[in-house]
Write a structure and sequence with these properties.
The protein is α+β, with helices and mostly antiparallel strands. Helices cover 32% and strands 18% of the residues. The protein contains 24 helices and 28 strands. Strands 17-16-20-21-15-22-23-24-25 form a 9-stranded mixed sheet, with helices on both faces. Strands 6, 7, 8, 9, 10 and 12 form a 6-stranded mixed sheet that branches. It has a 4-stranded antiparallel sheet with strand order 4-3-5-11. Helix 14 runs parallel beside helix 15. The radius of gyration is 40 Å and the shape is elongated. It starts with a strand and ends in a 23-residue tail after the last helix.
């Protein structure tokens, strides 16, 4: 197969790159660069920048989408994916094995392809092949002739030009990989003698402690640290072998002259060799020769494709987040559990992005300067006692002047101005300046590290989105915020972004922030500042969103004068939540059409029977439909009756008659003679026993109240089951309620409910009575 190339480098075909690798945030761009011996090397760059990337610094890696976009805009020769020892992936490069014009493959390379049977593609030059397998390599043996293997601390170029006849998936091939490695490098994996390298000591002064610390932060293996500190306990056959192994690892993290200094000052530097001398201390030529040999071996095993660049602090966050396999999947058992860390417990979490919403002129900036002042001095957050180490703050402000607003307010809050840094602009090539943007994740990352910031305040958020971000498009917002969330996680920085509210009203507070709901969805915490409903001078800080802990109470503060500026004075806690602050108490729901129809019927029929046609006409006048009127009739148990051939009349359910009342009195007298005790309801049960005239209510009365659900905040007495009508007079009389002929059912229910309340029990502290069963419910 003939492949078109751009110059001498294949163009990238992204759709053919394995999906298991696309999902990783491990991508870099690269450019070809000539070496001193006439060859070309591939130098990795942070996507979208002219800054070199590092295979040992995750902060220089980007997502596949972002890297591809930077490549497609031009300025780079290709893209590549970094492989680390945590991935369990091995790349096998077969160089000079393919004819770029005809696509024919050398027999020896074809044999390896058939043996490994895993995802394979054509190299950027078109003359080589790269195979990707799941598997790990022995400690040594990486390059021999035209065969190279690597599984860590490298970036691998990808073209997406899939090799026909090979799988498109990355397959597990550990056994086949072991066999190929042994055949290529031998059992001792010594490999071929590398090309010599010259090292000349620079004589430059080195801060050994600082250099060693950088090496440790870069992921220096624990066995190297132990060997430098206590070489006698290490299991090498000779100190010379141990020296060589340690120097090779140090050279992956430090410059050669720094390696020499660290090695020289360590306990390993004082170790006695077989001849009884401390060669490292006494023999500069031994140090020089060992470093040259280690450099040559590293260059051979690392393939010469990665140029050494200055190391930037590696934060080791991947260890906490678990082991990511070749399919982009993390096994949960590999993740290190840890509690949520808080800058301000319940309100602002560490290592996360928080959005603070509120209308203008409410003191959001002044409040955050108060928080920044506490961070820069180590003072506790409001209403807490937790002191912390004083740390630096990075402020991005687009609305307030530094000299007459920011600094005076910060001083009024008693902050340490030496620890507050304001990012005003980004220097450009040629001496220009660019306004900072959150889309410039690399610039923000650099400043966080350069100024050792632990808190970043963005005020306001919308001013720093960048020209290409539409704040109302969810996709744009998530594309912007996802790297920002990752950056906070990776660097350990806490970010608070201040945002104004939109002009809407009535919506839930979470939806009132300017722009897309994607802002609130992407972050883990949201706060709101709003006026107190009862006092416009008081501000309330309420939580809008907190996925990381229990909801906390809202806090109040006021803005008070302080010199020629202002400051925050914290007051206390309140129960008002964010929705109440913006929308007020939830309005009472208007009565339903059914309830309106029921009330109209009761009012129309309360004085006696009314002709059906008159009822229907009156319903039409007040806007009650025929179907709703029928439902109200059924609910109220309204009866239809007629006299002979006359019209139909509607009448309310029959009320107790004089005979029924007399019968109830007689029943009550019999019960008193028998000294029957009736329970007094407390906590939803019947634990007490009181006669009706002693203030209790009878079980029948209790059951009646439960059946008509009279225990809500606003009981509805109108829906009464007709099956109880014959017993109303008895139940009322038994409970000391005077019943007259013609007393309406609703009046009896209300009287029983008032009787129950008169027991003196605080209903708000009572357990709600058990709901009636379905057969007891009124069908509406």
């Amino acid at each position: 197969m003939t492949v078109e190339a751009q110059g001498r480098v294949l163009t990238v075909t992204p759709q053919n790159i394995p999906e298991a690798l696309k999902g990783r945030r491990r991508w870099v761009c690269w450019r070809s660069k000539p070496t001193g011996n006439g060859h070309m090397t591939k130098v990795p760059y942070i996507a979208g920048t002219d800054d070199k990337a590092s295979s040992t610094d995750s902060l220089t890696w980007r997502s596949f989408e972002r890297t591809l976009s930077a490549y497609e805009r031009g300025g780079y020769d290709g893209i590549g994916c970094v492989v680390t020892e945590k991935d369990g992936i091995t790349f096998i490069d077969l160089d000079h094995c393919r004819d770029a014009e005809t696509g024919s493959i050398e027999p020896w390379a074809q044999t390896i392809l058939e043996r490994l049977q895993s995802c394979s593609e054509i190299s950027p030059s078109g003359t080589g092949i790269r195979i990707v397998v799941l598997g790990a390599l022995p400690p040594t043996g990486r390059k021999h002739g035209d065969i190279e293997m690597y599984d860590s601390k490298r970036f691998c170029t990808f073209t997406g030009h899939h090799l026909e006849g090979t799988p498109r998936t990355i397959e597990s091939r550990q056994n086949e990989l072991d066999t190929l490695h042994e055949e290529t490098f031998g059992r001792d994996a010594a490999g071929q003698e590398p090309e010599p390298v010259t090292y000349e000591p620079s004589g430059e002064q080195v801060d050994v402690e600082e250099a060693f610390g950088r090496a440790v932060d870069a992921g220096l293996p624990s066995w190297v640290i132990e060997a430098l500190e206590d070489p006698d306990d290490h299991g090498e056959d000779s100190i010379s072998q141990l020296d060589f192994a340690v120097v090779r690892e140090l050279l992956l993290c430090l410059e050669p002259h720094e390696v020499e200094a660290v090695w020289y000052e360590s306990n390993l530097g004082w170790a006695l060799h077989n001849d009884g001398t401390a060669k490292t201390r006494g023999r500069p030529d031994y140090r020089k020769r060992t470093i040259e040999k280690a450099l040559a071996r590293n260059r051979a095993t690392q393939g010469g494709e990665f140029e050494h660049v200055e190391h930037v602090e590696h934060l080791g966050h991947l260890g906490r987040l678990g082991r990511l396999d070749a399919n982009g999947v993390v096994q949960l058992s590999t993740v290190t559990p840890e509690p949520v860390e808080w800058l301000w417990r319940g309100y602002i979490p560490r290592r996360k992005v928080t959005i603070l919403d509120g209308d203008p002129d409410l003191g959001k900036t002044t409040m955050m300067l108060d928080i920044a002042a506490r961070v820069t001095t180590g003072r506790p957050m409001p209403f807490t006692d937790d002191t912390t180490e004083a740390v630096n703050v990075l402020l991005m402000t687009a609305e307030d002047d530094l000299s007459d607003t920011i600094l005076p307010r910060f001083n009024a809050a008693e902050g340490n101005a030496d620890k507050l840094f304001v990012w005003k602009y980004s220097p450009q090539k040629g001496g220009g300046k660019a306004f900072p943007s959150l889309a410039d994740i690399d610039g923000l990352s650099y400043r966080i590290k350069e100024y050792e910031a632990k808190l970043v305040i963005v005020d306001p958020l919308m001013a720093y989105l960048g020209k290409r971000v539409d704040a109302h498009k969810d996709q744009d917002v998530r594309t912007l915020l996802t790297p920002l969330v990752d950056l906070a996680q990776e660097t350990g920085v806490t970010m608070v972004c201040i945002r104004h509210l939109n002009k809407g009203s009535g919506a839930k507070a979470l939806y009132r922030g300017s722009g897309s709901i994607g802002f609130s969805a992407a972050v883990r915490a949201g706060l709101l500042v709003a006026p107190d409903p009862d006092d416009d001078d008081i501000r309330v800080l309420a939580t809008l969103k907190h996925n990381l802990g229990p909801k906390v109470r809202s806090l109040t503060f006021i803005i008070v004068p302080s010199g020629y500026s202002t400051r925050v004075e914290w007051l206390g806690e309140v129960d008002t939540d964010a929705d109440e602050l913006l929308n007020g108490p939830e309005p009472e729901k208007p009565p339903s059409k059914l309830h309106q129809a029921e009330d109209s019927l009761i009012d129309l029929l309360k004085d006696g029977p009314v002709p059906e046609k008159q009822v229907q006409e009156q319903a039409r006048v007040v806007g009650i439909t025929e179907s709703t009127l029928k439902r109200a009739k059924r609910a109220l148990q309204v009866e239809s009756e007629k006299d002979g051939d006359g019209p139909w009349f509607w009448t309310l359910p029959r009320t107790p008659t004089a005979d029924a009342i007399q019968a109830a009195k007689e029943d009550q007298g019999d019960q008193e003679d028998q000294d029957v005790q009736h329970p007094q309801p407390t906590d939803g049960g019947h634990p007490g026993t009181l006669r009706p005239r002693d203030g209790g209510i009878t079980p029948d009365a209790w059951d009646l109240l439960c059946r008509v659900e009279c225990f809500g905040d606003e009981p509805d007495y109108s829906h009464v089951p007709s099956a109880l009508v014959p017993d109303w007079a008895r139940i009322a009389w038994e409970n000391g309620i005077e019943v007259k002929e013609g007393t309406a059912p609703r009046e009896i229910i209300e009287a029983l409910y008032r009787r129950w309340l008169s027991l003196g029990t605080d209903i708000s502290n009572e357990r709600e009575p058990t709901k009636p069963t379905e057969r007891h419910r009124v069908r509406r």
